[in-house]
Specification:
It contains eight helices and seven strands; from the N terminus they run βαβαβαβαβαβαααβ. With 264 residues, it is an alpha/beta fold. It has one domain: 3-Layer(aba) Sandwich (Rossmann fold). Helix 2 links the parallel strand 2 and strand 3. The longest helix is centred in the middle third of the chain and has 26 residues. The protein is globular and about 55 Å long. The C terminus is likely disordered. Belongs to the short-chain dehydrogenases/reductases (SDR) family. This is 2-deoxy-D-gluconate 3-dehydrogenase. InterPro entries: NAD(P)-bd_dom_sf, Sc_DH/Rdtase_CS, SDR_fam. GO terms for molecular function: oxidoreductase activity.
Length: 264
């Protein structure tokens, strides 16, 4: 049989939970994993939208894709989501902690304590609690993996989204600590995502003019990202192709900012 290097990217036999997967980047991740052969449960705050997205991906890929409501800040919802995935798929091999959101903070010194707490609960604690709930099942799986949707704002000054960037920076520490705690058992990685223009930008308070400027970022690639750009990186990390990668933050942000010397 001829060698097929793409076979290592297949996810046949894998069962995946994608949080925040009803739309935007999350939906792209769910679609990529299902397209590679995985069974996928989309868990989202908006249960109806999750079910609708799951139905469309299932029709497109022919895979078992389901959607359900889940508030990842609520322990009861987390436990119900994990139980539903295990009951439906007979196990669990991959968790994608994709949920994340943060509003704009025009004055970085006026961010309230509650805003910081809320951001930490949604962007960091939820990933920890979801991972903890999944680990007993992941330990039974072959090539088990946890992947977090991080943010490039966690690695650079991001004072206009201070609460969000700070919480995502904490997520980076959580990732590497859990990767070491679960060494040789479950691989844990994060993808630091750059500018991907989605409906979420408007919800975060970023106006249309700013979004238009972001469509032409000053990066090495010169374009914003797409959900598929992020999903492809996550597919690599979760699949056997990424089996020797753990404890890493993978930058998927168009190469970062271009540094121009002498105006050229």
């Amino acid at each position: 049989m001829a060698y097929d290097p793409l076979a290592a990217f297949r996810m046949d036999g894998h069962a995946v939970i994608v949080t925040g997967g009803a739309q935007n980047i999350g939906a792209g991740i769910a679609r990529a994993f299902a397209g590679a052969g995985a069974k996928v449960l989309i868990a989202d705050l908006h249960g109806d939208k999750a079910a609708e997205t799951a139905k469309g991906i299932a029709a497109e890929t022919g895979r078992d894709v389901r959607g359900m409501a889940c508030d990842v800040t609520q322990e009861g919802d987390i436990q119900a989501t994990v139980a539903a995935a295990v009951a439906a798929f007979g196990g669990l091999s991959t968790l994608v902690n994709n949920v994340g959101w943060g509003g704009v903070n025009p004055d970085p010194l006026a961010v309230t304590e509650q805003q910081m707490i809320d951001s930490y609960k949604l962007n960091t604690i939820s990933a920890y609690r979801m991972t903890a709930a999944c680990v007993p099942h992941l330990l039974k799986a072959k090539n088990a993996a946890v992947i977090n949707s991080g943010s490039f704002s966690s690695a650079v000054p991001a004072y206009d989204i201070l609460a969000y960037g700070t919480a995502k920076a904490a997520l980076n520490q959580l990732m590497v600590s859990l990767a070491h705690a679960l060494a040789k058992k479950v691989r844990v990685n994060s993808v630091l995502i750059g500018t991907v223009i989605t409906e979420g930008y408007a919800a975060a308070g970023i106006d249309e003019a700013t979004q238009q400027r972001m469509m032409h970022p000053d990066t090495l690639t010169g374009r914003p990202g797409t959900p598929e750009d992020v999903a492809n990186a996550m597919l690599w990390l979760a699949s056997p192709a990424g089996g020797w990668v753990s404890g890493q933050t993978i930058n998927v942000h168009g190469g970062g900012s271009v540094v121009r010397l002498l105006g050229h």
